[in-house]
Design brief:
The longest helix has 41 residues, at 2-42. Helices cover 24% and strands 14% of the residues. It has helices at 2-42, 133-141, 174-183, 191-199, 226-229, 267-270, and strands at residues 48-50, 56-58, 75-76, 82-83, 89-92, 95-99, 117-121, 124-127, 256-262, 284-288, 306-309, 317-318. The protein has 2 domains: 2-58, no CATH class; 72-323, paralog of FGE (formylglycine-generating enzyme) (Alpha-Beta Complex). The protein has 323 residues and is an alpha+beta fold.
Length: 323
């Protein structure tokens, strides 16, 4: 009796395997056919070549598989051309999005200071990476920027350390950051621009990479000790998994980033709907994104509004620019 029972089990398993194999193949073929049909009928929307395989080989700047949309970071011109951003930057198109948060989306949300409200932003470009020591040094060498506090004065400051040329420049005041951006023909991001770059305009994301708990897989943070146990910052762009929806690096961790806005905890309740920017005078300026040495990981949230004294420097604060 046992051999008959064993044969029955083997027969049933074989039938299941055949069914699963057939299901997988049948679900794949229609997808391939859809792509092939789109490729042939629309000729890759005249922005690529339809190969014999039925796949589009897209021109630079156009997104596969159909070449109908621009790649992330490129801009669509009135002539329907995908224009690349300036070197080291990425385009973020004009959009409306919900700035701030609600506790139903984010349990750490402070609904008084981070009140959700819809705004409209014009298109802009943002630096893909935080400004590095080597880039800032170019401005110092051109006698346009002043030297920040150096590594010989404070070991956590990166300027002056030969081994940290590609780390973010830190120990820098708000005005020094503005001077550098001006040197590059750019300016500091508004708080709204920074938040859009980190969050995106569609799906709610607690952190730039999504909703997964912060770890050293995504960001340079305090994990047992500062800087993912290295007690300092890391090279800009070192956390591939931590990119935002716009492919911008280090928007959480490594260093806080200066924004152009003066900090006002009530600003979200009174800010204009179009391109908000708080230009009021004030001692405190907005910083965003958290840093390598802060234990409180909730500060890494896209919606967290930090602030610092504009005239003070900190090893925890750096910046990036927009245009």
């Amino acid at each position: 009796m046992k051999p008959a029972k064993t044969n029955s089990i083997i027969y049933i398993i074989s039938i299941l395997l055949i069914f699963l194999n057939t299901s997988c193949n049948s679900s794949k073929e229609p997808i391939d056919e859809v792509i092939k049909k789109e490729c042939e009928e629309n000729n890759c929307y005249n922005h690529g070549e339809c190969l014999n395989s039925g796949i589009c080989a897209c021109e630079d700047g156009y997104e596969a598989p159909y070449c109908s949309d621009c790649k992330i970071g490129y801009k669509l011109s009135p002539e329907n051309k995908c224009i690349p951003p300036e070197e080291g930057m990425l385009y973020i198109k004009a959009t409306s999005f919900k700035m701030g948060c609600k506790k139903t989306d984010d349990s750490k949300c402070n609904e008084e200071i981070e009140k959700e409200h819809e705004i409209n932003l014009s298109a802009f470009q943002m630096d893909k990476y935080e400004v590095s020591v080597s880039k800032y040094k170019n401005c110092v060498d051109a006698n346009t920027c002043t030297k920040p506090i150096t590594n010989s004065t404070n070991k956590l400051c990166n300027y002056g350390s030969f081994s940290r040329l590609e780390h973010p420049v830190n120990c820098i005041t708000w005005q020094q950051a503005r001077d550098y951006c001006s040197f590059e023909g750019k300016h500091l991001p508004s708080e709204a621009q920074w938040e859009l770059a980190a969050t995106g305009s569609k799906k709610y994301r607690v952190y730039p990479w999504g909703n997964k708990t912060p770890s050293c897989d995504y960001s340079v943070i305090y994990d047992k000790s500062a800087g993912c146990n290295r007690n300092r910052t890391s090279i800009v762009g070192s956390k591939e998994n931590g990119r935002s929806v716009y492919s911008i690096y280090d928007l959480a961790g490594n260093v806080w980033e200066w924004c152009e806005d003066t900090y006002d905890k009530n600003y979200y309740s009174t800010s204009p709907a179009n391109n908000p920017l708080n230009t009021a005078s004030g001692e405190y300026k907005v910083v965003r994104g958290g840093s390598f040495d802060f234990k409180k990981l909730s500060m890494l949230r896209n919606k967290y509004r930090g602030f610092a004294i504009a005239e003070k420097f900190s090893p925890s604060i750096g910046f990036r620019c927009v245009k």
